[in-house]
Backbone:
């Protein structure tokens, strides 16, 4: 999607950090932007950052709430018409390590991070496919969705691996509609993600939320990241990896996997035919998806 002017983006978790960076970058490209977020305090603050443009609209919702997401899609259509860019950006974490996590920990993180992304897709994709004007989906995963992480981040990483996997499949599925898909996998970004976990969980559970000020010191500027996302959409990049320091770790993770495959093996003819057919289908769908970005 190269033409941004006058088009509409819907961003979950758009009132802080990376989502707010995307909102600002989209507005600068002449887009209409709907900022959806759990916390009214963040929405109020985002309104201040983004200014009083009538191209920005704000919706308070919990991404895990299916009815609220469906209502947000209807409200977006009423306010701006067709949606072209969908950013499923909300992601939360929990404190308990993966081997000690309770059902409540698992439910919270999976319902928000995977469930919230699914709710965005189910509520918005029918409209995006039907209007025929093309568009783009950006799902926010993480470097924790690429490589192994320490125990404390294991539940979070589970959800982020899922978001990356679904994005790969979605990219192939949406290409025939002229809709590109990118998965955003950042490392450290200067946001509230590491410090606000308890507040987000309390608000998700219906309790009053406290004030949030802390950020991840030393992380990348989220506004800079917003501009990176705009460029990735314009080029229909499948993967957005803004943090170069992870390259070696990702390489050694995949090298370890490659080394685990047998290289000398027999294959039944039916198995070979089936796998060749599947690989061909994938390659054809991938060529179509890459062609949207002018790569093929
Ligand atoms: N900051 C980093 O270093 C980093 C690194 C990798 C990935 N990420 C991912 O980036 C995404 C954005 O996080 P961020 O770093 O900008 O954090 P952030 O805390 O600054 O912003 C997250 C926003 O999401 C909102 N939110 C939380 N729960 C919600 C819910 N259930 N429904 C709707 N809104 C909700 C919060 O109110 C907040 O405004 C997340 O998916 C996170 O996992 C962040």
Residues:
């Amino acid at each position: 999607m190269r033409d941004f002017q006058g088009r509409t983006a819907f961003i979950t978790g758009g009132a802080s950090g990376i989502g707010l960076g995307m909102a600002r970058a989209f507005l600068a490209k002449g887009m209409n932007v709907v900022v959806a977020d759990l916390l009214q305090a963040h929405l109020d603050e985002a309104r201040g950052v983004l200014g009083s443009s009538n191209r920005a609209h704000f919706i308070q919702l919990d991404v895990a709430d299916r009815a609220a997401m469906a209502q947000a899609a209807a409200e977006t259509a009423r306010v701006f018409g067709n949606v072209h860019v969908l950013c499923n950006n909300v992601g939360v974490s929990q404190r308990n390590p993966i081997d000690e996590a309770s059902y409540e920990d698992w439910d919270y993180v999976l319902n928000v991070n995977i469930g919230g992304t699914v709710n965005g897709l189910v509520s918005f994709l029918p409209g995006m496919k039907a209007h025929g004007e093309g568009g783009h989906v950006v799902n926010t995963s993480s470097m924790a969705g690429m490589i192994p992480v320490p125990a404390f981040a294991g539940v979070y990483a589970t959800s982020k691996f899922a978001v990356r996997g679904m994005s790969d499949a979605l990219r192939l599925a949406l290409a025939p509609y002229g809709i590109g898909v990118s998965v955003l996998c950042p490392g450290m970004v200067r946001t509230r993600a590491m410090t606000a976990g308890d507040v987000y969980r309390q608000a998700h559970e219906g309790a009053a939320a406290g004030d949030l000020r802390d950020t991840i010191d030393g992380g990348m500027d989220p506004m800079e990241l917003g501009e990176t996302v705009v460029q990735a959409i314009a080029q229909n990049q499948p993967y957005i990896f803004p943090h170069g320091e992870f390259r070696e770790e990702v390489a050694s993770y995949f090298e370890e996997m490659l080394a685990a495959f047998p290289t000398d093996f027999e294959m039944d003819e039916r198995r070979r035919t089936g796998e060749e057919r599947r690989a061909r289908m994938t390659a054809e769908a991938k060529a179509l998806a890459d062609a949207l970005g002018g790569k093929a």
About this structure: Strands lie at 8-12, 32-37, 56-60, 85-88, 135-140, 179-184, 239-240. The chain has one domain: 8-261.
